[in-house]
Amino acid sequence: MYKISKQFAFSAAHSLDGLPGDHPCTRLHGHNYVVTVHLRSKELNDTGFVKDYNELKVVKQYIDEHIDHRNLNDIMYPLNSSAENLARLFFDIFKPMLPELYAVEVSETPKTSAIYELDN
Ligand SMILES: Nc1nc2c(c(=O)[nH]1)N=C([C@H](O)[C@H](O)COP(=O)(O)OP(=O)(O)OP(=O)(O)O)CN2
Ligand SMILES: [Zn+2]
Hints:
Layout: E1 2-14, E2 29-41, H1 57-66, E3 70-71, H2 72-76, H3 83-94, E4 101-109, E5 112-117
Parallel strand pairs: 1-3
Antiparallel strand pairs: 1-2, 2-4, 4-5
Bound molecules: the ligand Nc1nc2c(c(=O)[nH]1)N=C([C@H](O)[C@H](O)COP(=O)(O)OP(=O)(O)OP(=O)(O)O)CN2 and zinc ion.
């Protein structure tokens, strides 16, 4: 199996529901998010690629148009704007455009990340 990945960055605001009232993440705050899309294929194309990184610009276009510099709570309601839910949301959005997609990772900070990936 061959695997590739590419990272995309955006900035957004959010607050989290369902946490204790004194939890800092209940307050509106922002992150410089990094999204990593992971693709795989058993075979390479004639160029020796799983997929041309350039073709992943659909991810950048979507993020720039719909996600960057927005409040994620507005976009994700009624889901909580956790990194886990965001990774699943991105997976469901990008999978039809990128059939080789098998995982999406979302980092809110350099120290944290959440991954949604296929079972197999
Ligand atoms: N499993 C999850 N836990 C948390 C999420 C999440 O999406 N999934 N999100 C948050 C907050 O949005 C935010 O990311 C705060 O994270 P945390 O690492 O606790 O914040 P700090 O950078 O302030 O932590 P340091 O310990 O100072 O590094 C919370 N949890
Ligand atoms: Zn946060």
